[in-house]
Each structure stands twice: as structure tokens, then as C-alpha cells.
Amino acid sequence: MSPVAETNKLEEHVSEIDNIKRHHGEIIYETNGFISKIHRKDKQLNRRTVNTYTGMWKEDKKDFSNKEETTKVRRENAQKMTNAFYDIVTDFYEYGWGESFHFARIYKGDTFEQAIKRHEQYLSLKLGMNDKHKTLDVGCGVGGPLREIVRLSGAHITGINNNAYQIERCKAYSRNLGIESRTDFVKGDFTNMPRELDGKFDSAYAVEATVHSPKLEMVYGQVFRALKPGGLFATYEWVTTPKYDENNPEHGRIIHGIEEGNSIPSLSSYEQALEAAKSVGFEVLEYEDMAMLEDCHDPWYLTLKGSFSFSGFRMTRIGRWTTHKLVYFLECLRIVAPGSTDVASFLNNTADALVKGGELEIFTPMFFILLKKPSTAQ
């Protein structure tokens, strides 16, 4: 990189830090305090960001039959839409779900935390990670899976994420946990990765993140570029299953609810995900829908549907309802930033859509795919 490019990159980084401090406050460097976080947000910026995200879905509400055109618009604006989404939902996710923003295969008798950690550790196992590995986390969120896998494998992991707020959260966690030497973070678009990442990594993984890509081919192609020849890529994908019927109005409403509540331009199917991987040069080694139930499993959506429990209360239906009412009350008192209630509301609606999609078996958040970049590829 030339000195001029380095200077421009540094200036851009400083500007982004200033922007997220204006929106989120100095709280970005802290690792707890949900009410404190949503209290410190800039009122105008938060309202504007909420409007930016919800505005992407207004046309669908007016005319659901015109989904093809509105999907095209969201694909064209995917980075803007997803950045706005994570600016407004990250604090809610950390409060209600924890540091790892994903689902997991649940065995009977599991705690939520056990299931989440096993799901992350499974990736390390499949990739054969060790302390010599350099690995890429594609769409790393606030770094929950990354930190678990670093501590398990000893590998050095680089997380890429295009949301500056989440990148700063990642850095804060790594600093507080003393694992800065084993982690690195790149603020960047995973559909257009920096050239300096080309051929750098022994392995890569994605945890329910590539669904934000306008098309899976776009992100898969970039991961292919970043891997060394022979490198492995493991991913958990959000996809529709063969039971999904696009001509069924109920199915359509449920899938649209999942897309709207998770910043997804358009969900792919099993087959589309596999074909996208092959189209950019990957060899498909394994694939499995890990949401498929055996006698030893509980449904992946059970936590969202579950009744009262102290350990996972915030994630349950009554817990989410309580959070929504609390945020509404605090927003009425002008204690938290405008738009916070809107966020709590659409996240509740999304949870309901996820449960329905799971019950009808038309959607899975854990279609596991293991891919290999051919040893002869460059």
C-alpha cells in the first residue's frame, strides 16, 4: 500500500471512530450495561439509523407481490442496510443473546451456553485448526465465536466485518481478555476484501454471516481468494429447505419476516448455496442441515419459543415482551434514544417468524457446508 493510500485509510478510520462515538458514545469500549448503552446513543443519529433500515422494507409492506423489485433494491444497498441494522441491534443482541449471535444444534440436557460453544468448537474440529493456523472469520460480529475458537485451538484469527461499531467491540473484548496477540480485525466489506488478504489464510469459517451478502457467490469468491491453495472453508448458512413452497402465502410471509428482521436481501435454498460455492471454484466436501432432529435433540428454536426460565429468560417470549415494554417506558421518559422501541418491536416479530419457520421446517439457520480450495488453484 502506498504512503498516500495508508494516510487516506488512517483518516477514514479516524472518521469512522468519530462517527460511532457520536452515535454510540464512549460506551463502545465497555463490555456491559444495556440500558447505559441505549441511553448514551445520540438521539437524532439513532432515529435516523432506525429509519434508514426500516425504510428498506416499506415497499414490501405496501405491495408484497412486488418482492422481486424490492429485493433488487436491497441487494444494491446491502452494505448500507446491514450497517444500519447492526448499528441498531448490536446492543440488543448482546443483552438478550450474548456475545455469539447465532443458533446451535441443541442436545437434550444442554444449557444454551453449552450448545453455543459446541457449535463453535465444531468448526475448529472440522477445519483441523491448531496454533500454527492463520484463520479468517468471515463476518465476525462482536467476536464471540472467534474468541472461543482462539482459546480452543490456539490459532491466530482475523475477523472481517464492515460495521465499525462491532469492530470496536471486538477490539475491546480482545483487549480485556488478553488475547490481542492471537486476534486481528479488519473493517471491510466481505464481498470486496482488501487485496492484502489474498492467499493469506490456512482456513476460514462463517457463522450465519454470509446471508447478508447480496448473493452468496460474491462472498464465497472473496473467501476463495483469501485462502491458500488447499485451504478449507466451513460455514453455517441461513437457507430455505426443500419444504419451502414459494407459492404458499404463509410460507412467503414467514420467510419475508425472517429476511426483514435480519437484514437479508433474499434467502437462498440448500441447492443455491451449494451451487454458489461450486461456481467460484470450491470443492464441496460435506454438507448437512444440522437443524434436522434426532431423538437426542431439542429444536434449535426452542429458546425463542420457550417458557419462563431464569437462565435464558431474556431470550424467551416473556423475556422479549418484558424488554420491549421496558424500552418503551424508558423511551417515553426520554431516557433512551428514539427508535429503541421500534428495534425491540421488530426483533420480537422476527423471533416469532423464526419459530414458525422452524416449526414448519421451511427454514434452517445451520446448513453446514465444508468446502476446499483445490490445491492447484491460485
TrEMBL record:
Pfam families assigned: Methyltransf_31 (PF13847), Sterol_MT_C (PF08498)
GO CC annotation: endoplasmic reticulum
Record keywords: Methyltransferase, S-adenosyl-L-methionine, Transferase
GO MF term set: sterol 24-C-methyltransferase activity
Record bears the keyword Methyltransferase: yes
GO biological process: ergosterol biosynthetic process; methylation
Domain named SAM-dependent methyltransferase Erg6/SMT-type: residues: 85-374
UniProt KW Transferase keyword: yes
InterPro entries: Erg6_SMT_methyltransf, Methyltranfer_dom, MeTrfase_SMT, SAM-dependent_MTases_sf, Sterol_MeTrfase_C
Family (UniProt): Belongs to the class I-like SAM-binding methyltransferase superfamily. Erg6/SMT family.
Protein's name according to its UniProt entry: Sterol 24-C-methyltransferase
Organism: Rhizophagus irregularis (strain DAOM 197198w)
Origin organism lineage: Eukaryota, Fungi, Fungi incertae sedis, Mucoromycota, Glomeromycotina
